[in-house]
Amino acid sequence: MSFPLHSPPMQRLIITLDGPAGAGKSTVAWRLAKRLGLEFLDTGAMYRGLSAKCVERGIDPVTEDYAVVELARNSDFRFDWAQDPPRLNVGGTDVTDRLRDSDVTGQVSEVAAIPGVRQVMVRDQRRMGQEHPRLVTEGRDQGSVVFPEAEVKFYLDATPSIRAQRRAEQLRAAGKKVDLEQIRDRILDRDHKDSNRKDAPLVCPEDAHRINTSEMTLDEVVELLFGLVHESAGQAL
Ligand code: DC
């Protein structure tokens, strides 16, 4: 019996998940990636990682946007893909444990609204997509800007109250103090900033499956997406 000398190249399969804060994207994307045997990219972590570096250096993203762009250009954003979920290193520092802290979250929308920062991130995310072509990637602009040619696109949404409750549970599970009202206000504020910024605002791509997860459990959302991926890109699995 003879075997081919080279295995055929892996068929590309990019699945994008976009939507507002607290819609459950990160957990859903990570679980979906595991079920499909794909890799997972959390692009919000990159903006959060840069925000953490700004806090560390005392850079104010509102008044010193040029310094934030400079920092983004000079920092290497590296995920450790061997970890599950991948840990993030920015400019030589492992920032993973800082990503959800309130000082980092508090200014991340300002960091993400700076066009020069988005240029760096989009370029880096496309490079990661080339290096990891079988990927579930999650953020605000993955289906609309970064991977407009993605094989399957999703847009997840839920009511602001449900999203606030979910974020509160995440924080409680991480042992953090929780003020539900404050979380809801901050989510609404972030929605407003993410949807109204000039560069790559949060939008639902026309060719995305739009899913309201308010009444669904995490398992149900993952199951639904899993079925839809099989329906629309089963040949690539
Ligand atoms: O999904 P998240 O809460 O971790 O995102 C953090 C911030 O980064 C949020 O304000 C939106 C922004 N973001 C973005 O503008 N584009 C992305 N692709 C991912 C996140």
How would you characterize this protein structure?
- There is one protein chain.
- With 237 residues, this protein is α/β, with parallel strands linked by helices.
- It has helices at residues 25-36, 43-57, 65-74, 102-106, 108-112, 115-131, 142-146, 160-173, 180-196, 218-233; strands at residues 13-18, 39-42, 77-80, 87-90, 93-94, 134-139, 152-157, 209-212.
- The chain has one domain: P-loop containing nucleotide triphosphate hydrolases (Rossmann fold, 3-Layer(aba) Sandwich), CATH 3.40.50.300.
- The strands form two sheets. A five-stranded parallel β-sheet has the order 2-6-1-7-8. It has a three-stranded antiparallel β-sheet with strand order 3-4-5, covered by helices on one side.
- It is globular, with a radius of gyration of 18 Å.
- The two termini are 27 Å apart.
- Bound molecules: 2'-deoxycytidine-5'-monophosphate (DC).
CATH architecture label name? 3-Layer(aba) Sandwich
Low-confidence stretches: none
Count of the separate structural domains: 1
Question: Helices and strands: which structural class?
Answer: alpha/beta
| CATH-assigned fold name | Rossmann fold
> Can you write the helix and strand succession as a string?
EHEHHEEEHHHEHEHHEH
Spatial shape: globular
Secondary structure: number of strands:
8
Overall pLDDT: 93
Largest sheet: 5 strands, parallel
Strand content: 15-25%
Query: CATH superfamily, please?
Result: P-loop containing nucleotide triphosphate hydrolases
Biggest sheet, spatial arrangement of strands:
2-6-1-7-8
Q: CATH top level?
A: Alpha Beta
Which compounds are bound in this model? Answer: 2'-deoxycytidine-5'-monophosphate
What is the straight-line distance between the termini? 27 Å
Fraction in helix: 40-55%
| Assembly status | single chain
Q: What count of helical segments does DSSP give?
A: 10
Using only C-alpha atoms, the radius of gyration works out to 18 Å
